[in-house]
Amino acid sequence: LFGRTPRVALDAYLEVLGDALGCCWAHVRLTVDRKAADEDPAKLHALVLAGHEQVPFANSEFALRVGQMFTFDNDPSARSDERWRVTIRQYSYAVELVSSNEEEVISWHWKPEGDEPWQEGNDIPGTESLSELDREKVRKSALTRRAHAHIATGQLVGYHLSRKHHIPTERIALEDVIRFAFEELGATPARSDWRVRLTNTREKFVAARTWPESGNSRS
Amino acid sequence: MVTVADRESASVEYLTEEQGWELLDQRAQRYLHMSGREFVERWDRGAIEDPDRPEVNRVSMLLPFVR
């Protein structure tokens, strides 16, 4: 996740991500924008699994769709081999049904888009003069900027809960989504050592990330 | 295509901006029945209804490929 140059940091990150996704499939194809390879540090970059197609798990009715946006961040005070890092700025992870309409079952989003997350119960600053309709648009936009999950599909939609709800979550690691698919949804791993491999890649992710997990805050 | 070093199971493809437009256009046509350029124009105006729905999300995550 770190490197002497943006490209080295990107290669390190792709290696870890490839390891994690390699628990799901024998071959993983990652798609990245060319400007990331050209080490354009001033830009938001995209990284998606298989062109952002859904990729079916083996022997399963479920598929995974993965998208991330990232930047290269520079820390002049860091060791020379950790001067650059890849920082995830947005993610979208979705478990979908393998069907003609690619129906979403559950998804996890985090899209802060540079704004401070709106805190429930607080007034949204700067909206006092807006109409009720516009205030509602701003409120919904703020909801999408917090880390959240959507639960969907026709089987689950009911009176109380629908895909439109933003269920608050912590920011999550992709490894947690993969583990959920294996342990809870019964998707078939591609490797027998997937637990060890996911634990290893998640540890690298946790060691490098800049945000704490609830109950696991680090100074 | 660049192969990730020392990994037998992962490969990385880097898309140029032109290839990014092809991908975005394909996805926008498939999921939203509009061109990629129309999607970007509407997105930038804030004119995409319910931008957090899956069909939009499958396209909007590709935006950095064309920026």
Can you describe what's shown?
- The complex is a heterodimer of chains A (219) and B (67).
- With 219 residues, chain A is an alpha+beta fold.
- Chain A has helices at residues 6-21, 34-37, 132-145, 174-183, 194-208; strands at residues 2-3, 28-33, 45-49, 55-56, 62-74, 84-97, 104-110, 148-151, 167-168.
- In chain A, strands 1, 2, 3, 4, 5, 6, 7, 8 and 9 form a nine-stranded antiparallel beta sheet that branches.
- Chain A is globular, with a radius of gyration of 19 Å.
- The relative contact order of chain A is 0.16.
- With 67 residues, chain B is mainly alpha-helical.
- Helices cover 49% and strands 12% of the residues of chain B.
- Chain B is built from three helices and two strands; from the N terminus they run ββααα.
- A two-stranded antiparallel sheet of chain B has the order 1-2.
- In chain B, β1 (2-3) and β2 (10-15) form a beta hairpin.
- The longest helix of chain B has 16 residues, at 17-32.
- The radius of gyration of chain B is 14 Å and the shape is globular.
- Residues 1-6 of chain B have low confidence and may be disordered.
- Chains A and B meet through α1, β2, α2, β3 and β5 of A and β2, α1 and α3 of B.
